[in-house]
Design a protein that fits this description.
Radius of gyration: 16 Å
Largest sheet: 4 strands, parallel
Oligomer: single chain
Strand order of the largest sheet: 2-1-3-4
Shape: globular
Structural class: alpha/beta
Strand content: 5-15%
Number of strands: 4
Length: 160
């Protein structure tokens, strides 16, 4: 499938999904795909976790969104990929939106180990999460680029 939108979704959109959005935009720079992060439970905008922002800055990655944003149904298209960070969030999402394709980031890239959630941890925990997430997001970018190239090749077969 050819995706034109990737939404990173976590519970409150103050750490993991904001980190993923920022790293993915940095990795996928210049490509034609919409990338955003959203929260399943956002009652009011909350600022990004300071440890997330500090970790991104240390790696030269600009924070794309500085506060949480709630997930809205009208954001989904047939070409939207939703990536969560835990099975719990994936199930919460699927219960609300069963018609939208969703997977955990680890599932999408074929990993078996869950991504470490650094919430409440030290800066070293956030650094470890960054390193694991960056590696997975690079793999996700490769997968999406290959799917796009494959879909473009099929589209071109029928052009005259």
């Amino acid at each position: 499938m050819k995706y034109d939108k990737v939404l990173f979704v976590c519970r409150d959109n103050t750490s993991l999904s904001l980190m993923a959005e920022s790293i993915f935009v940095h990795i996928y720079e210049g490509r034609q795909i919409y990338v955003a992060s959203r929260g399943l439970v956002v009652l009011m905008p909350m600022p990004c976790n300071p440890k997330t922002e500090l970790t991104l800055s240390k790696h030269g990655v600009a924070l794309v969104s500085k506060q949480s944003t709630p997930l809205r149904e009208e954001e989904f298209t047939d070409a939207t990929l939703v990536l969560t960070f835990s099975d719990v969030d994936k199930e919460r999402f699927r219960n609300r939106y069963p018609y939208v394709e969703a997977a955990t980031l680890t599932e999408f890239v074929g990993e078996t180990m869950a991504l470490l959630n650094p919430y409440g941890g030290t800066l070293a925990d956030y650094e470890l999460c960054y390193e694991e997430m960056e590696a997975m997001l690079k793999r996700a970018a490769e997968i999406l680029a290959a799917q796009k190239d494959s879909a473009d090749s099929l589209d071109n077969m029928f052009e005259f």
